[in-house]
TrEMBL record:
Residues 327-465 form the GGDEF domain. SMART domains: EAL, GGDEF, PBPb. Residues 473-726 form the EAL domain. The lineage of its organism: Bacteria, Pseudomonadati, Pseudomonadota, Gammaproteobacteria, Alteromonadales. CDD domains: EAL, PBP2_BvgS_HisK_like. This is EAL domain-containing protein. InterPro entries: Cyclic-di-GMP_PDE-like, EAL_dom, EAL_sf, GGDEF_dom, Nucleotide_cyclase, Rev_trsase/Diguanyl_cyclase, Solute-binding_3/MltF_N.
Amino acid sequence: MVGCCWSLGANAYIVNASEYQWLEDNPEIRVAVVADRLPLETLDQAGSPQGYAVEALNQLAFQTRLKLKYTAYPNISEAILALQHGQVDMLSSASSHRRLSPFVNYTLTTWVQPLALFHPLENARIANMNQLAGKNVAAVAGSSAHEALLSKYPDVKVIVYANLLDALLSVVEQQSVALLAGSDEVAANLRAHPQWRLQQAFQLEHGMLHRFAIREDWQPLVDLMNRGILSFEADYSEQTYRRWQAYAANSAQAGQFSYWWLLGVLLLLSIAGSAFVLVRQHLKKANNKTLQLREQLDYWKNHDEVTSLPNRRHITRLLTNWLDDATPLSVLMFDFPRQNEVFENFGQRLGEVTKEAYAKRVQKSLRKHYPEAQLAYWYHHYFVVVVPNINKDKEVIEIAKQIVQSCRGWLRLEQLQLLTRCHVGYCSYHPRREALHSDTLLANTFTALNHAVKTGVSVCRYRPDLSQAGLVKLTLESKLRRAIGNNELDLFFQPQYCLKTNKVIGAEVLLRWFTDDGAISPDEFVPVAEETGLVLQLDKWVFQNAMRFMARFSSQLPEGFKLSVNFSAATVSLGHAEKIAINYAKQWQVNPQRICIEITESAMMEQPTEAKASIQRMRDAGFGIAIDDFGTGYSSMAYLKHLPVTVLKIDRAFVSGLEENLSDQHIVKAMVMIARSMKYQVLIEGIETQVQANLASVLGCEQAQGYFFARPQPEADFVKNYLPKTSTKENLRLVVN
C-alpha cells in the first residue's frame, strides 16, 4: 500500500507511505491545553477542552485519524515546561518563544490575534512603546507578548505573571503601568470584570500567530498538519474564530447579566444623545480592524512566513487559472540542498535567514532577466518558478541555467559562509498537444528534479519514462509488501564446504521471489525494499523462517553445521538486527552457536559506534559474525580489529581471475594472512572450477561455496540432498599440488 487518501468534504487529504507508517507507530498524541485562554482554549464545566485551537486541532485529527489525549495546565508557562520534559507531545496553542524554539517545530499559522497594550482608563493614552521605557509592563510568562517585550523592547521593564488574570490585576492595582497581551483574550476577561476600567491604547504591528508547537523529532506530524491546515476552506478559520469570540463574550455576560442590564439602563438614560455616534465610530473601527485582519490572514494563508514568497496554495491556484485559460507555460522546480545542514548545525533562526537570503538571490535574478516569472516557495527545501507564455525547450533551459547560476556561489551571513548549489527540473505545457491538471504538471516537474538530483545533472527535462520508472518502483513495492504479508517468498540454501575434508559444514540462506509472471531478482526488489523501509520486514521474514528450518531439522543436521543469515546494512546500523536474532532464536529454541550472522562492511561504516555495540551483543549471545563481501567495500583495518568477527568471506570478485591473475592471488593471500593473524576463519565465495578450489586451498582458505560445489536450492531439495548424510557429491575430489 503506497499511501492513503482520506476525504473530508471537497478537500482530499493525502497520507504517503512513510507518514502512514508513522501514524501506525504513534496512534495517540498527548496535547497540552491551558485552562483559561478564551477564545483560543479553555475547559468547560465538565473539564473538556474547548476553544478555537482545540476545534481546529480536532478537525485535523479527524482528517488524519489521530487519537488525541488532552491534559490541562493552569497557564502557558507550565504547558511549555511539560513539553520540555516530554510529558506532552504538542501544545494546542503556541507562541514563538525562545523557551520553545530550540526543541519544537511549528505548523503553519491558522489565525493571527492582535497584540495590544492596555492601561487604566483614567490615565493619558499611550501612543507608542517608546513612552514605556524604564516603566513596568505586565505580560504572561511564555506568551508572544512576553517574547516581543524581551526581543523588541529591551528598555521596558517586564513584570511576568503566570496567567492573564494576575497580569490584569497588576495593572488595576497600579503595580504595572500597562499590560501587553492578545486583544481578544483581554477583551474576554474585561467583559467578565466590568469594574476593571482599562482601555486599549494601540496594537503592535506583529500579532500573536496561532500555531501548533510539536516536539522536534515529529516532523511527519508537522507535515501532515500543515497539509491539513492548507486544506481548510478559505473562510473556515475566520468563521470558527469569530464563533469562539462570540462564545467568550456570551460566557462573560452570562454571569454578569443583572449588572450589565442595570448599567445599560443607566448609560442609556445618561448618554442617550451620544450613544449613536459612539456606536457608529466603534462599528467603523471594528469593521476596519476586521478588514485589516482578514487581509493579513489572507496574505499569510497565501505566503510563506519566512521568505514572504507565494506559497504552495497560492501558486497552485495561479497555475490552475492559467491552465483553465489554456495559457502555454513552463514550471521549473529547484532545491536548496544544504538547508537541512544549516538547520542542524546552526539552529532554526540562522537556517530561516539563510533560506530567505537564498530565495531573495534567485528572485532578484529572475526579476532582472525574466520579470514575468513567478517564484514561489513549495515546501521543505523546494522552490517553484512558473513562467507563462514560454514552453520552448531552448528558452526554458536558458531560464533553468539562470536559476542554477544565481544559486551557485558563496552565501555569507553572520558567522556562516556557505557554498550553495542547486538542481532544476522542468516541465512545459502545450495547450494544443495536451490537457494537464496543475497537480499532474507539478508532479512531473518534481519527478524531473528528483532525476536531476540522482544523476547529478544541473538541469533535467521531464520525460514520460521518468514517471514510468517511478510507477514500476511503486508497483514493485506494493507487490513486495503483499508478498511479505502473505508469505509468498522462498528461502534457498547454498551449501558451504570445508576445503580440507570436502564435507558440508553449513549453508547460506538466500532469499528468492517467484511470481506468476516469473522470478524477480533480488537485485530488483532489495533496493526498492531499502528505499521504502521494507528491508526491516524482509530481514525479519528471512531470519524467522531460517530459525523455523533449524528448529525443524536440528536433529538431522551434521555435527558442527552452521546456517549463515544475512542482515541489511540499515537493520544492523539501526540496532534492529540484534533484537531480531536474539528474539527469534529464543522463540524457536535454536542454539545461537549454530547461526552465523553475515554483515556487509557498509553496515558498520554508516553508524560505526552503534553497529559495533550491536554486533558485540550478538556475539556475546553466541552468534557467529561474518564480514560478507570482504575486500569490495571500505576494507578499513581500523574498524576490523575492534569487531568480534569470526569469519571473513572473500568476495567472488577476486575469484573470477584467480587462475590467471597473480594480483588476485596476492590479494587473496594477503586477506587470508590478515584473517589468520586475527584468528578469523576464511570462506571464499564464487568457486566455479576445480582449479579455483585448488588455488583457494593452497592460498590458505579453509571454507568455500560456489557453483562448483552446489547451486542455491529450495529447502526440500537441500534437505533431500544434504541432511541424510554429510555429503552426496561422491565424485568431488580436491587435488592440491
